[in-house]
Write a structure and sequence with these properties.
By secondary structure, the chain is an alpha+beta fold. It has 3 domains: about 10-90 and about 170-200, no CATH class; about 95-165, no CATH class; about 210-240, no CATH class. Helix content is about 45%, strand content about 15%. The protein contains 9 helices and 7 strands, in the order αααββαββαβαββααα. Strand 6 and strand 7 (about 185-190) form a beta hairpin. It starts with 8 loop residues before the first helix and ends with a helix. It binds zinc ion. Zinc ion binds near residues 67, 69, 70, 177 and 179.
Length: about 240
C-alpha cells in the first residue's frame, strides 16, 4: 500500500484537474497512476484505486444501486479492507493461451491502456478489448487470420477466463432489493466511486477558496496553507457581515 503517494488537498486538486477532461477509461488510468508507473492489468488498476479510496475515506464505503427489477434504490456498504483481501497482490500479465471449439487464442491480459475509450455495449466492449490484446489466433482449420466476426463462444470463454486470471478486473456484489426482495448482481466501478469522492472534495475546496478570497483577498495557496480548524473558523467569520 505504500507504493501510493501521500496525497494532501493540494495534490488531490491537481489530480482532479488532470482527470477532469478525460473520458472515464483514461480517467481511471490517471487516478490509478503511482510512482511505479501505470498498472500492468485491470485488476492491478482496481486494486490501486481501492487502496487509494481506503486511504482517503477510511474502511467503509457507502454505495447506492438501482434495482433492475423495480427501480428502487438499494443502499449498501462495502468494507474496503475485506474487498482488498479477496484480491490477489500480484497478477502475472504473461501471455496466456485459451482453446475453445478448436480455436486457439494466444493473448496478453488487458492493461488499463487497452480499455476502449468509446461507450460500448458489453459485447462490443469485450470484443474491442480482445482485439487489442490478441497475440495470435488459430482457427479449427489452422489458419492464423480471423476474417469477420469473433465466434461468440470464444468471446464468452475469453471473458470468463479473464475473470479467473485477473480477479480484480471485474468487481461486483450480490444485492437483494429492499422493496421487491429480488436479487441481482450489481457491478462496482472503483474508479467511478473514487472520482465521485474527488469531485465532491474539489467542489468543497474551491467553494472555500472562493469565499475566503472574496472576504480576505487571500490567494489559493494561502487558503490551502490554513489548518482545517483555522479555515473553518475564518469561513464562519466570513459568513458574518
Ligand atoms: Zn426491486
Amino acid at each position: 500500500m505504500n507504493r501510493l503517494p501521500r496525497l494532501d488537498e493540494r495534490e488531490l486538486l491537481a489530480l482532479w484537474e488532470r482527470a477532469l477532461p478525460l473520458p472515464p477509461p483514461l480517467r481511471a488510468r490517471e487516478l490509478a497512476w503511482c510512482e511505479d508507473g501505470p498498472a500492468a492489468t485491470l485488476g492491478e488498476m482496481n486494486r490501486r484505486l481501492l487502496e487509494l479510496q481506503l486511504r482517503l475515506t477510511g474502511p467503509r464505503l457507502a454505495l447506492l444501486a438501482p434495482c433492475p427489477h423495480c427501480g428502487e434504490t438499494a443502499s449498501f456498504e462495502i468494507e474496503l479492507p475485506r474487498l482488498l483481501q479477496g484480491l490477489p497482490e500480484f497478477v502475472d500479465p504473461a501471455e496466456q493461451v485459451l482453446s475453445v471449439d478448436g480455436w486457439t487464442l494466444r493473448f496478453r491480459l488487458p492493461a488499463p491502456a487497452d480499455l476502449p475509450e468509446a461507450a460500448l455495449d458489453e459485447q462490443g466492449f469485450v470484443r474491442q478489448l480482445l482485439e487489442r490484446c490478441v497475440v495470435d489466433l488459430q482457427s479449427p482449420q489452422g489458419a492464423g487470420v480471423l476474417d469477420g466476426a469473433w465466434p461468440a463462444p470464444l468471446l464468452a470463454a475469453w471473458s470468463e477466463h479473464l475473470e479467473a486470471a485477473d480477479p480484480g478486473a471485474e468487481i461486483g456484489f450480490e444485492l437483494a432489493c429492499p422493496a421487491c426482495g429480488r436479487a441481482w448482481h450489481a457491478p462496482f466501478d472503483p474508479a467511478a466511486a473514487l472520482w465521485s469522492w474527488l469531485q465532491t472534495l474539489a467542489e468543497r475546496s474551491l467553494l472555500d477558496i472562493d469565499a475566503l478570497a472574496r472576504r480576505y483577498g487571500w490567494s489559493e495557496d494561502q487558503v490551502l496553507a490554513l489548518t482545517p480548524t483555522r479555515r473553518n473558523a475564518y469561513l464562519q467569520l466570513a459568513q458574518v457581515d
